[in-house]
Amino acid sequence: MTQPPPNVPTPPPPAATPPAAPFPPQTAPAAPPPSPFYAAPYTPPPKPGTNGFAVAALVFGLLGGVLLSVLFGVLALVQIRRRPQAGKGAAIAGLALSATWVVLGVGVAVILALTADSGADSTVADNGQVSVDEIRLRDCLNGLTEGRNIANLPVVPCTEPHDGEVFAEFPISGATFPGDAAVGTQAEEGCVERLRSYAPKAAEDPNTELYFLHPTAASWLTGDHDVLCVALSASGKRTGSIFD
């Protein structure tokens, strides 16, 4: 058995390892306190107002003010597209009413024109005397006499027997009265030329004669500057129009 050498210190025994401190248990974090909730009262948005131009367009459309209704209606539609306003229907209604007024106006004008044309064959419906100033194209006349001043003539429907028919009208040239001879020459030449243009069938008929009513020095001063060309039949009264 081996003995330790003398005077050699013996190492101390190893120190014991201290026990580990216990690990604190894990705990869930505390929930934050609930925040207070404030309920604000609901305020509905204000209703959009009606566009004033739209109302004006509707009113003028009802009254027949076409120009103003169209103007206000267009302005209203432009503004309504840019801002939240009511009234689009009123603006469109105003424009529609304006279009209706225009159509009605055109229709009335056409009816009046047709009525005027339908009455162009005769100035009056009976055999009444008519002023020479009121005689017009395609009037059929009686009582034509040469060599005297005529103020009134009987106008009859062309379907009845008549002396002559007015087929043309034209003014005497010149600012002042040119004299009876010059007026007669212009009237005759102008009526012959117009008979060939307006009623060539009557111009080729040897039975057709010309009669013209022209201004005198006295009637010229009252504004009478026109010549009325009248076609007559050499065989006497006739019925029907020379234009037929």
From TrEMBL:
Membrane-crossing residue ranges in chain numbering? 53-78, 90-114
Where along the sequence do coiled-coil regions lie? Answer: none
Which ranges carry the Septum formation-related domain?
139-229
Specify the superkingdom: Bacteria
Name the UniProt record assigns to this protein = Septum formation-related domain-containing protein
The record's listing under InterPro entries reads:
DUF4190, Septum_form
Write out the entry's keywords from A to Z.
Membrane, Transmembrane, Transmembrane helix
Location of region: Disordered: 1-43
Where do the DUF4190 domain residues begin and end?
A: 54-106
